[in-house]
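On clarity, I found the account of how folds are encoded harder to follow than it need be. For illustration, here is how one protein appears when written out as sequence plus structure tokens:

:::
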Amino acid sequence: MAPVTRVLALGPRRWALLGRVACTAALVEPAIRLLPLRTAARLAGACLVLDDVAADRDAWAELSEADRERCDLALRLLRRRPFRATCLRRSLVLATLLRHRTPALRVGVAKSGGVVAAHAWLELDGATLDPDAADYRGLAPVARPPVASVAPRAAV
């Protein structure tokens, strides 16, 4: 079945969702490039959580049928051109769809074969929406050293 035929078969309600996801994806791009991550997450409806606490459950089973359908359709769209969204972009778009559930955006890293990889995922009430999240260790904030104050020079 041709892609256009598949989209037409979805029906008007899902067309509106696809339009919303496409617009959101277009807005997420400048947000992650121009704003601090905490601000971009907040605008998407998520709270950026920086700690090393791993989720112990799968959140997909806890989603309502409507939420599951919306997220599935969004992920299918975001895998295609022109989006081909990265994990951070996907997470922020899904956060807008699930903002009524107050999602947490997490960022983690993993080292495999000497290569460090970063990953972003959403969690809902301590359950992850990403099965790959268990392979990553969450980032924790690093304390900044105090800034030495410099006394202004006296005018000569």
